[in-house]
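name: query_chain
kind: protein
chains: 1
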Amino acid sequence: MICALRNCHMLLPGRRTAKGAIVVDTDSGTIKEVAPGGFAGKADVEQDLSGHLVMPGLINCHCHAPMTLVRGLGGGLPLKRWLEEAIFPVEAKMTDEDVHAGAVWGAMEMLSGGTTCVADMYEHNYQHAFCEVGMRARVCEVGLSIVPGRLEECINGTRDWNSWMRDEVKGDVYMDLCIHSEYLTDEPFCRALAEANKELKRRLHFHCSETRREHEECIARHGKTPIAYLADTGLLDNGGYAAHCVWCTDDDFKIMAEHDVSLIHNPTSNMKLGSGFARVARAMELGVNVALGTDGTASNDNLDMFEEMHLASLIHKGVAQDPTVLSPWDVIEMATVNGAKALGRDDIGEIAVGKKADFCVVDLDKPHLVPALDLANLVVHSMHANDVVMTFVGGDPVYDRLNVGVEFDGVYHGMAEAKANLLAAVKRLGLIK
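structure:
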């Protein structure tokens, strides 16, 4: 079936904007034609998007979606105390049912804000949550050497799930490998996981140099920074994506560039926890791919990728005292095509013929979006997640506020039940009465 989205403004590769149409082959889930100026052909389904912007689906490269269960918990505590006093005690009580409810709600929050793909790490098996709502995901079982049997769970769980997903074709939700961090895994664990990855060939998702203390204690233990240490264990041999990297050195950035490890910038979380600011402009100068993530809702406290773009732009201009640092297009690419690169993908992140039809539709008829003089600037400095009215994944309108009378199995129509399930889980955990 052919679907035409007509009369829309578009963000296109090559840092271009245009007004015209996007034509989608819904059978293959790909973009069939991008037509600046308009589409003269006929389509089976048409949507007039006058007054709307269509932009690539946002890619959240570091998240803990189930943490919607503990949104804002432990606010005001530094990282170590936040984990040990606020988060870990509640997580120890979570069941599979709780985690699934939190993940579904997190996925719905992301889709409603234009995020079409996420790299997520957490405890329990919750991959099905993303399949249920039609979201693309790379999910990880957190590698922790302090948990008996976790090494085998990470290896076997990744192998088994990915084999099932390939055979059953149930969606685009695969597992990558993960360690929580250098400080929560020992060297035998890391080397054994790296050895298994010679067969699995998955990218590594991990926290890295988030705080000065973490960074310096690793040097004291191993005589190396976290990045240098992990490279030595072989864990970076298949590339990866490293969250935070606030205290990484120039030498770390060079190692990351050599090993195809992306820096995932989490500005909101890093500020809330008082961790500092990653030197993303310097990382980019040294050849590191930089993408964006929200982190979890306990340290953010939302999954709004537009907010992450806004803060990423402003932080580095302010720190450098230079308004030319990180142009709006630089930041948009961090949230889209650079996110695709971080996950080892070349089929998402752009509105182009042959790419997956993943995009979000923003209503430009809002007081804070008028006049639309510079669309790229508007995206980064004015838009919010709530401005999104439709989100497409593979050409499927998984979230749709424009056509609310149309009955389809989408996120918008399922939010009431998902909210009830989330609140029931939060109540079971004793966080509300």
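note: The chain has a mean pLDDT of 95.
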